[in-house]
Amino acid sequence: MSNKAGDFRALLDHLGTEPEQAGGKYEQLRRKIIRFFAWEQCTGAEDLADECLDRVARKIEDGVEILNITGYVAGVARLVMKEYQVRRRREQVVLEEFSHRRAIVESGEDVERAVADLNACLERFTADQRSLILRYYEGDHARRIENRRRLAEELALLPNALRNRAMRLRSLLETCMAGRATRRDEFGRRPTMVEDRER
Predict the structure, then answer these.
(1) With contact defined as beta carbons under 8 Å apart, do 165 and 157 qualify?
(2) pLDDT for position 68
(3) Cα 55 to Cα 4: distance, rounded to the nearest angstrom
(4) Is residue 190 one of the residues assigned to a domain?
(5) Domain-embedded: residue 165
(6) Which site in 14, 39, 54, 122 is 20 to 30 Å from 76, CA atoms measured?
(7) 18 and 68 co-located in one domain
(8) At a CB cut-off of 8 Å and minimum separation 6, what does 10 contact?
(9) In the structure, what pLDDT confidence band is assigned to residue 6 with cuts at 50, 70 and 90?
(10) Mean pLDDT to the nearest integer, 42-51
(11) Rg (CA), the chain
């Protein structure tokens, strides 16, 4: 199991023998990655940069030999960006699916705010539940049928059982997002995580 503090120390050791030198190089590298994600119009560029550096640190701690740290980090950043883009496409599909029934995105509502609400509500799910609901709605109509068939096989579920599970999760998401929208209308701001848990 990875130790985050140990991973971080391994990355700093790789960047320089002197703590001050290593810290400076780390901050410089982090700023470059943040600019990369911001240039690619990724929301949460700082969080994505931290994820990227965490992955590199784990590789170093695991004994992977890295000769060109800047090039290696750039490669990991591109991978993280691709994963981010896939995740955002899935989120967008779910938002569009829900908006057909006006359950989430009312006319004129900011899409970024809706995505933030969606993510906050998805955080209340387990990793398996999040994966299921996002994959269930992924793709256009033709691809969606095949995606759902594969998903049912992976989970060893009959198609109807998969559909029922997805509908339950969808109902929970709609309730959560409607609640956040109501609270935002009441208080003129996004609900806090504490307020979410109290609901």
Answers:
(1) yes
(2) 87
(3) 10
(4) yes
(5) yes
(6) 122
(7) yes
(8) 57, 60, 61
(9) low
(10) 88
(11) 20
CB 118 within 8 A of CB 104: yes
Q: What is the rounded distance in angstroms from the CA atom of residue 88 to the CA atom of residue 90?
A: 5
Do the beta carbons of residue 195 and residue 183 sit within 8 Å?
A: yes
Question: Position 65: which residue type?
Answer: E
Choose between 141 and 35: higher pLDDT.
35
pLDDT tens digits for 61-100? 888 888 888 899 999 999 999 998 888 877 777 777 665 5
pLDDT of residue 138: 79
pLDDT for the residue numbered 118: 81
Predicted confidence (pLDDT) at residue 191 exceeds the cutoff of 80: no
User: Dihedral, CA atoms, 63, 65, 70, 73, nearest 10 degrees?
Assistant: -50
Per DSSP, the residues of the chain read ---HHHHHHHHHHHH-SSHHHHHHHHHHHHHHHHHHHHHTT-SSHHHHHHHHHHHHHHHHHTT---S-HHHHHHHHHHHHHHHHHHHHHHHHHHHHHHHTTTSS--TT--HHHHHHHHHHHHTTS-HHHHHHHHHHT-S-HHHHHHHHHHHHHHTT--HHHHHHHHHHHHHHHHHHHHHHHHHHHHHSSPPPHHHHHH-
Comparing CA positions, the residue from 141, 144, 143, 98 lying closest to residue 122 is: 98
Question: Can you give the pLDDT at residue 116?
Answer: 77
130 lies in which domain range?
Answer: 101-198
Question: Which residue, 120, 132, 123, 196, is CA-closest to 168?
Answer: 132
